[in-house]
Design goal:
This protein is mostly beta strands. The chain is built from 11 helices and 87 strands.
Length: about 1250
């Protein structure tokens, strides 16, 4: 062990420090620094020091690879958390951040143990500073440290903004197919050229700083871009003008380029036609010495230091230092100058401020200058009290722009200033004007009513909480960095402020700018735009097709089957086959039949194509471009149960195979680019066609009809169904060059059905059983979703462990689901509590998501629970064990029940495959229909299948796979439909034979009638229900178009009429009618009313849709069973889609909901007839028309009086016999009115 002289240090209390060098078996030196006090061992600051730190001077730049800490010996003093800062000068400091961007180091839990931290990337610096954040609450700050590393040597060149280095080639030009360029730099400015070279043929390479980011322009032999202004740069990094070292590595092989800046790498391919970079004469470093050179573009020269500059293994700075002839060094020095640009960080957006005295001005007025940088769109920069109280002058950032105001008048200045760049601002008064200047932009002024004199103090960044002299933060205090503050041309020494000798402050960090780019790396997925404030980042997902805090979740379903489960019907849909994966959405057609859901993907050539004149040497080739990318197609096919594609191939004297040796003359290419020679669904690898499989080839000596080579047309059409080869990407035809030879082909769209993931399930019936899968890859984001059903009170759904990290989902109690994980910041637990038990043997949906931004948990339709991730903490979830599903590694708290559709990061896990080989777990889980009551709609019945379900719509007025598609018919004046029910009503017995309890029970039963209509005609008959004994209900449109419902109640009453709305419904809009009627008994009524007969005589012109009477669908029965004896059709009927079109095109208006429940309607008889637009009592109406005029007024008057009297009598006699009308108005997005009666 060799002891080196004592180290220079700074601290808050005096202790002796020793610097010791170790040499172990010829390895690199390992340095560590041990602290031993003169009394108790270690360092401890004064109790009065509010911001203690310990600073180490390593005497020269060292490469530090690890640090270790320990508490103060023999005491209860230790540091439990700290920051590590580094600097080359001991003044401009930068905070060291670990791999996740975490700046906080975990310290000690006692005074004796040693906590080591290996740095993820080494520090190359001379000075280190330890800043305690937390310490033992029962003691005080106590610290012993060790620093590990080795010596660091470098060749340095200093550029002053006008200098450069030129490396001249030995020949006129240098052409390379491989380049490796590396360097390290630290810059004082946000702009500057680091490297430039170009060739006369159009090649160029330029590496520069632009707005604090690294930009690389690289082009290979593309003269189109040489003189254009459309050069595209690959950018990396940000905030690179921070006066600290950054490393750059450019690796190029042909067109493939890797650009690495510090720890971030970007891979890309260059533009241009060539593979080599041809540069003429020279490469320049630090600037472009001849800005007028053709093909170049003007940029500022670099101002800062470059070290260890290597071009293809050549040390450029070393050649310059040794004055080699191939190097020209213009005004370059070989030591790095360090400008004294010391920054101060304002840490809090609510309480930070810096108070400085207003120094005496040599002239009237005053002047303030400073530089600032921030991410926040709002914050107070400067506030001062004016001589004329209570007026104040304020300079603030408002909505990302600079704002100067004196009490009320305000002037906005310049561009957006919350871009993280340094901005210079000056505020000065001259006479009766206050002038504000931002950067190099034109100044703006405020007029004063009197000469201005600043108060005694100027407040920078915010105001004290005591509201001194009226200083108050307008919105937020400034959160960012400031430097170069001068008041009346006198620079402010912030070291004196820190020492308490000048001004006052709160929540500041001196000698460093703590700005951090939270959009680097960009955690916004799928092209989301990242923006940020000082403490966090945000993702704008607009136009990406994704949503969530990091644009992780697709807004589209993964398959047509998934759309069916949400109630969709046939049509075009955007599907995202890999969900949150890298593939985007694509549009497909979903054909939802009664039993299967087909996904249809089209291509660019679906029409028949005739081919002539092709040979095997010059074949006809057609490549098919599908509406989805090849990657999306592969995902669609892989997730489907079965796929098929029809190939129609007709031929005349055109063979598919050579009849002599079997050589293929035509073929198609599969999705993987492989040549395929089987046609029409036959087994892969067999050169045959469908006719050979079906044994019906026209000539059984051949395996394909076309190989018979006849002069007449032959057909080898078939269906390709081996889905691993689909879709067809290309077809090649090579035998149509002979006389009379031609071929005709058509490749149909790709059609797939089924979603293998939707019903993939496993049943767990032993608590110790589980399924295991490879380790979950979810460092930065994970979304987990599945369905479960169980009867047990608790159990673990899944778990994955790491050394210290974990992720777990479990049913923790009968009504509570918990999602817990730990990424190194301590366990996080989210819980969702249901108001009903979740162990009810019904399917429940669960989705959990964790990202660097937030975590969320969603169960069924319960409110979403989410929790934001803390800033500046660990981000990556590091797991190393297997993923356990249905249990844990300890075989405790296992789940008993069913889990299906387990999807993690949009990858579906094959539970059934693992269940086949796992004891205690079985394949599948019965009970799909119990997963949700909404699988089948409109009275549709869910029927279980082995892997899924189907909807039985036989008792629904609707059709389609989910019983949601409208069944509509268009009527003309002469058309009508009558459906005869051959079953009795529910209440058939005579009322007198019933007991009172039987009667009360039957009275609670209801008749249900529902239908939709669209018309412009009035009056019009819509629907009647009548019995052979003349009881009836009729729904009509009156002469004014209003809806009327006529019904008869008792033998001694006239028919009653109910008008729910006076407005006209003959308006070409879709209206929905629902009528609910109790079963009641009565006998005989008078003849049908005049108004009803008038409507019946006019018939109906328009569209009726989805007619339902109890469990029967008369209109649907008409279309499906036209030959039935129960159906009578008059006139001409046309099936229509008016109901569907109205749903699609009419999006919103006011909806009036009317609920009507009369006490009595139709007698219970054996035969009941439902007449849809029946031409009712037309002859009777015409017979009475001649006698009507003389007596109609008297009849109407008498009828109205009688009806009113009898209604009142009935109401008083029995509360059950009354009419109830409840009218509710609500705004919806539908453009049609809906009436529920």
């Amino acid at each position: 062990m060799t002891r080196v002289a004592g180290v220079l240090f700074k601290q808050n209390s005096v202790f002796t420090l020793h610097f010791i060098q170790h040499d172990r078996r010829g390895l690199l030196d390992r340095y560590f620094l041990s602290l031993v006090s003169q009394g108790a061992g270690g360092w401890s600051p004064q109790v009065t020091d509010s911001q203690p730190w310990l600073q180490l001077d390593l005497r020269d730049r060292m490469e530090v690879t690890a640090v270790a800490t320990q508490g103060r010996y023999g005491s209860s003093d230790w540091v439990s958390g700290y920051l590590l800062l580094f600097s080359d000068t001991g003044q401009a400091w930068k905070q060291y951040r670990q791999e996740d961007g975490v700046g906080r180091f975990v310290g000690n839990v006692n005074a004796d143990s040693v906590i080591h931290h290996k740095l993820s990337h080494p520090i190359r610096s001379r000075f280190l500073r330890f800043v305690p954040l937390d310490w033992n609450p029962s003691g005080w700050v106590g610290l012993r440290v060790e620093v590990y590393g080795c010596a660091y040597k470098s060749d340095v060149a200093d550029f002053d903004g006008r200098s450069s280095l030129l490396y001249r080639f030995n020949q006129k030009s240098m052409s390379t197919v491989k380049d490796v360029i590396s360097l390290r730099f630290k810059s004082h400015q946000a702009e500057g050229v680091l490297l430039h070279g170009e060739g006369q043929r159009g090649d160029y390479i330029t590496l520069e700083l632009h707005r604090g980011r690294l930009a690389l322009y690289l082009n290979l032999d593309d003269t189109r871009l040489r003189f254009s202004s459309g050069r595209v740069a690959v950018t990396l990094g940000s905030l690179l003008d921070d006066q600290h070292w950054h490393s750059v590595l450019i690796e190029r092989f042909n067109k493939q380029v890797n650009l690495t800046m510090d720890t971030h790498t970007q891979h890309f391919r260059t533009k241009g036609e060539g593979d080599s970079l041809e540069v003429d004469y020279e490469l320049s470093f630090g600037g472009i010495p001849l800005p007028g050179k053709p093909g170049t573009f003007l940029r500022k020269n670099f101002h800062g230091c470059i070290e260890n500059l290597y071009y293809n293994g050549i040390n450029i700075i070393d050649l310059a230092k040794r004055r080699k002839p191939q190097i020209y060094s213009g005004n370059v020095t070989f030591s790095c100058s360090e400008p004294q640009l010391v920054s101060t960080t304002f840490l809090s957006s609510s309480s930070s401020f810096l108070s400085l005295p207003a120094t005496q001005s040599a002239s009237e007025g005053f002047a303030v200058r400073f530089q600032f940088r921030t991410w926040n769109p709002d914050g107070l920069l400067l506030s001062t009290q004016l001589a004329l109280e209570p007026q104040r002058l304020e300079l603030q950032i408002s909505n990302s722009r600079l704002l100067t105001q004196k009490t009320h008048p305000a002037v906005s200045t310049g561009h957006r200033v919350n871009d993280g760049l340094w901005h210079s601002v000056s505020l000065s008064s001259q006479g009766l004007q206050v002038t504000t200047t931002l950067d190099n932009e034109p100044s703006s002024t405020i007029e004063l009513g009197d000469h201005m004199e600043a108060g005694n103090s100027l407040y920078f960044g915010g105001c004290p909480s005591l509201n001194i002299l009226g200083c108050k933060n307008p919105t937020l205090a400034f959160q960012g960095c400031m430097r170069l503050i001068s008041i009346n041309s006198q620079p402010m020494d912030l070291n004196r402020v820190q020492q308490g000798r000048l001004g006052n402050y709160r929540e500041l960090q001196f000698d460093t700018c703590g700005i951090h780019d939270r959009c680097l790396p960009n955690f916004c997925e799928h092209g989301g735009q990242c923006s940020q404030s000082w403490n966090t980042f945000y993702c704008d997902c607009s136009g990406t097709g994704y949503t969530g805090a990091t644009c992780h979740n697709s807004i589209y379903e993964a398959s047509c089957e998934a759309y069916r489960l949400t109630g969709g019907s046939s049509g075009f849909f955007s599907v995202d086959p890999d969900g949150s994966g890298p593939l985007g959405p694509t549009q497909v057609y979903c054909n939802m039949t009664e039993y299967k859901v087909w996904t249809v993907v089209t291509h660019n050539s679906t029409d028949p194509v005739r081919v002539q004149g092709s040979t095997l040497q010059k074949p006809y080739v057609m490549k098919f471009n599908y509406s989805a990318s090849p990657e999306q197609l592969m995902a669609l096919v892989a997730g489907s149960e079965q796929c098929r594609q029809e190939v129609m191939y007709g031929c005349r004297k055109s063979r598919l195979f050579n009849t002599r040796d079997g050589t293929p003359l035509s073929w198609w290419v599969d999705q993987g680019g492989e040549r395929r020679t089987y046609w029409g669904g036959f087994l892969p690898g067999v050169q045959q066609c469908s006719c050979s499989l079906e044994e019906n080839c026209m000539d059984m000596n051949y395996f394909c009809n076309c190989d018979a080579d006849t002069d007449s047309w032959a057909n080898d059409t078939g269906v390709l169904s081996y889905k691993e080869h689909l879709p067809v990407s290309e077809i090649v035809i090579g035998d149509t060059n002979r006389t009379g030879s031609e071929a005709l082909y058509r490749i149909g769209p790709l059609r797939c059905y089924g979603d293998k993931s939707v019903w993939n399930a496993a049943s767990f019936y032993q608590e110790s059983s589980y399924l295991h899968f490879p380790t979950l890859q979810a460092e930065l984001s994970a979304d987990i979703s599945f369905y479960f059903k169980t009867s047990i009170p608790s159990g673990v759904f899944l778990e994955n462990l790491g050394l210290k990290h974990f992720i777990r989902l479990e049913l923790s109690s009968p009504s509570v689901v918990t999602f817990s994980f730990d990424v190194g910041n301590g366990p996080v637990v989210l819980a969702v509590k249901s108001h009903v038990p979740l162990n009810d043997r019904q399917w429940h949906y669960l989705r959990a998501e964790r990202s660097v931004k937030e975590a969320s948990l969603h169960v069924d339709q319960l409110p979403l629970r989410f929790l934001e991730a803390p800033s500046d903490r660990h981000l990556r979830l590091r797991l190393n064990s297997q993923l356990f599903v249905g249990g844990t590694a300890a075989r405790q708290s296992g789940f008993l029940g069913c889990i299906r559709t387990l999807t993690i990061n949009s990858v579906t896990f094959n539970l059934e495959e693992r269940a086949k080989m796992t004891p205690g777990v079985s394949v599948g889980c019965p009970g799909h229909c119990s997963s949700s009551s909404s699988l089948c709609h409109n009275r549709g019945r869910c029927i279980e299948k082995n892997s899924g379900y189907v909807c039985d719509c036989s008792q629904s007025a609707y059709g389609g796979p989910s019983c949601k598609e409208e069944v509509s018919v268009s009527f003309d004046r002469e058309s009508s439909v009558t459906y005869t029910f051959q079953e009795p009503f529910s209440v058939m017995q005579n009322r007198s034979s019933k007991t009172s309890s039987d009667y009360r029970e039957s009275s609670r039963a209801r008749e249900n009638i529902a239908f939709s209509f669209m018309t412009t005609q009035s009056p019009a008959m819509l629907l009647t229900v009548n019995t052979f004994s003349q009881q009836y209900i009729a729904v009509i449109l009156a002469r004014n178009g209003s809806l009327q419902i006529w019904y008869s109640i008792h033998v001694d009453r006239k028919p009653d009429v109910f008008s729910p709305s006076p407005s006209s419904l003959a308006d070409r809009r879709l209206h929905r009618i629902r009528i609910h009627l109790p079963y009641l008994l009565f006998t005989g009524v008078d003849a049908v009313d005049e108004e009803v007969m008038r409507a019946g005589s006019k018939g109906f012109i328009g569209c009726l849709s989805s007619v339902q009477f109890n469990h029967m669908a008369p209109l649907k029965a008409v279309l499906l069973n036209r030959g039935s004896s129960l159906v009578t059709v008059r006139g001409h009927l046309v099936e229509s889609n008016c109901g569907t079109l109205a749903d699609l095109t009419i999006l919103g208006s006011t909806k009036d909901d009317c609920y009507f429940s009369p006490t009595g309607v139709v007698s219970a008889v054996v035969f009941i007839t439902l007449c849809v637009v029946a031409v009712m009592a037309r002859f009777l109406y015409q017979h009475r028309e001649a006698q009507r005029d003389a007596s109609i007024k008297e009849k109407e008057h008498r009828h109205n009086l009688e009806t009113a009297y009898r209604r009142e009598t009935a109401y008083q006699a029995e509360s059950a016999y009354r009419t109830e009308l409840h009218l509710h108005h609500s705004s919806t997005l539908r453009d049609n009115r809906e009436y529920y009666i």
